[in-house]
Write a structure and sequence with these properties.
The protein is α+β, with helices and mostly antiparallel strands.
Length: about 170
């Protein structure tokens, strides 16, 4: 796992390669399958998610149209609760089994908190519901989408957004 240190001047230094790297270099590391870790040079704080977000937005600037403007506008309008919902949804997509297990435990904890079940019952039910034998076999690896497939999907999303905007405009006129 490449360790990258981020300095206060925002320069990135790959400790393993003993070289400075760019956001493009980080993107290439991720594309080739490396699990990177980015830490603040001074504090040691984990900046991996922030750096990967910067990579995505850097790609957006270069390629343009990575995320349609209507989606970005809507995200800003609806605020943090929707962003948290999207974040949760992405985590569910990345590790659906862990997401379900966490949700089971969260709901059982709520039942214990409201007094519907005892702590022991909640623990026993949680252990039964998230037992290893309940896990399905791992899925086979998924091949990455081809650029033309991504472009076609992006076009379809843009068409759907235009239709949605038309429907919303018609609804406002009603």
């Amino acid at each position: 796992m490449p360790l990258i240190k981020r300095y206060s001047n925002r320069k990135l230094y790959d400790v393993d390669a003993s070289a400075y790297v760019t956001l493009d270099d980080v993107a290439e590391m991720v594309r080739r399958g490396d699990e990177i870790k980015v830490v603040d040079y001074a504090s040691g704080a984990d900046l991996t998610a922030l750096t990967l977000t910067q990579v995505i937005f850097d790609q957006e600037k270069k390629l343009g149209g990575l995320l349609p403007q209507a989606i970005l506008t809507r995200l800003l309008r609806v605020g943090n609760s929707t962003l948290q919902t999207i974040r949760d949804g992405m985590m569910a997509f990345l590790d659906p089994i862990q997401y379900v297990e966490d949700e089971i435990r969260r709901r059982l904890a709520l039942l214990v908190e409201e007094g519907s079940i005892t702590t022991d019952e909640g623990q026993r039910l949680g252990d039964l519901l998230v037992a290893a034998r309940m896990r399905p076999a791992p899925l086979p690896p998924v091949e990455p989408a081809q650029p033309q497939e991504v472009a076609a999907l992006r076009g379809q999303v843009e068409q759907l957004e235009q239709e949605l905007e038309k429907l919303q405009a018609a609804q406002k006129q009603s």
